[in-house]
Design goal:
Layout: H1 22-28, E1 36-37, H2 51-55, H3 69-79, E2 86-89, H4 92-103, E3 109-114, H5 119-127, E4 130-135, H6 146-156, E5 160-164, H7 176-185, E6 190-194, E7 216-221, H8 222-225, E8 234-237, H9 240-249, H10 257-266, H11 270-293, E9 305-309, H12 313-321, E10 325-326, E11 328-329, E12 338-342, H13 346-361
Parallel strand pairs: 1-10, 3-4, 3-5, 5-6, 6-7
Antiparallel strand pairs: 2-8, 7-8, 9-12, 11-12
């Protein structure tokens, strides 16, 4: 007798992400430790000093606190919200799936503003919800047409709306006024505002004061801020009722003891993060200037990453990988002519520029 999964997840494709694909490198005979990774939008300076000592204090012989109480309290103080407004997740991706399972189901419509993180679509498919999409276009510089967004919301009245700010992969941001108009139009929708890269944008405005009285879930990532990708750590902020509902579906012990201890430690490292932010701004400015000189024009970005049109993104990525440098092919975002590049240290950025020049001198596409 054949055994089939639920209809919603039959033939579901996996979501492509940045970062090293270890199976790919093994097939190419490339050692992972020799690859310079510009494909993942992470803090390249590593975790703050003292992180290993802090993590060693975690009691791994016991189950972790399912509610991450100490970490939530410290975050609440830092963000000036109540602890009951915060849910800690094993990365923001876990929270994306939790909110979809909690609120979206068959017959529901969810609006996704693209290009965007592919996990929004995956979460909707798992929950059985149907997706409608609005697209940002190159012809308008990938700026969001907020008037069109409002029309789509009024026309379809979606149960949910996924939007990232800054946008992944372009790094562009909505203003507070634009987002205010969107959330007012979608007052009957659950708006999921993904702020995974908020720590790395210029002149960031705060959305935290919008949670009370609104159907708004804000997602943030400590993974990216403090270079904790191997631990998986993110959090959601919303009014108490939304957090409580998601918490009912959250697996027990979802955030391990080591990750919780690391999160507690890095919250006191604001000065370290500021230094990293300043260095990344300089690195981004250098990359944008140098690539522009090579007639590769990056999309204007406020984040620590940007997208740039290169012609054939898969070929461009492959040629760079032969030089042990990895960038993100944006085909999965619906942009097969673009790659996404995350800023790294200045010496590493110089290596990337040199490699691209060598590719162009050799007649490779760029």
């Amino acid at each position: 007798m054949s055994l089939l999964p639920r209809f919603e997840v039959q033939d579901m494709a996996s979501c492509q992400h940045g970062g090293i694909d270890y199976a790919e490198l093994e097939a190419l005979g490339i050692a992972p430790e020799g690859v310079l990774d510009f494909s993942a939008n992470l803090n390249p300076f590593g975790p703050p000093p003292g992180i290993k000592e802090a993590m060693s204090k975690a009691d791994i012989a016991c189950y972790p606190d399912s509610k991450a109480t100490n970490l939530r309290r410290l975050l609440a103080d830092k963000l000036q919200v109540k602890a009951e407004n915060i849910l800690i997740g094993s990365g923001a991706t876990e929270l994306i799936r939790l909110v979809a399972l909690a609120y979206f189901g068959r017959g529901d419509l969810v609006l996704i503003i693209e290009p965007a993180f592919g996990e929004y679509q995956v979460a909707c498919q798992i929950s059985g919800a149907s997706v409608i999409k609005q697209r940002r276009y190159a012809e308008s510089g990938f700026q969001l047409n907020i008037e069109e967004t409002i029309k789509l919301i009024h026309r379809h009245r979606p149960k949910g709306i996924f939007i990232d700010n800054p946008n992944n992969p372009t790094g562009q941001c909505l203003s507070r006024a634009e987002f205010g108009r969107l959330i007012d139009a979608g007052k009957d929708s659950l708006v999921v505002l993904d702020e995974a890269y908020i720590a790395f944008i210029d002149n960031a405005w705060s959305s935290l004061d919008m949670i009370e009285g609104k159907n708004l879930l804000i997602l943030r990532s400590m993974t990216k801020d403090y270079a904790l990708a191997g631990l998986r750590l993110g959090y959601g902020v919303a009014r108490r009722e939304i957090i409580a509902t998601m918490g009912c579906l959250c697996p027990p012990w979802n955030v391990n003891a080591v990750a919780q201890q690391a999160g507690i430690m890095v919250l006191g490292e604001g000065e370290y993060l500021k230094r990293c932010q300043a260095e990344l701004r300089r690195a981004r400015s250098y990359l944008v200037a140098e690539l522009s000189r090579l007639r590769l024009s990056p999309i204007p970005s406020a984040a620590n990453f940007f997208s740039v049109e290169v012609g054939n993104a898969a070929e461009f990525r492959h040629n760079l990988l032969q030089k042990r440098i990895l960038v993100r092919d944006c085909a999965s975002f619906g942009l097969p002519g673009y790659v996404r590049i995350a800023s790294r240290t200045l010496p590493e950025c110089r290596r990337l520029v040199t490699a691209i020049k060598e590719m162009m001198d050799a007649g490779h596409q760029a």
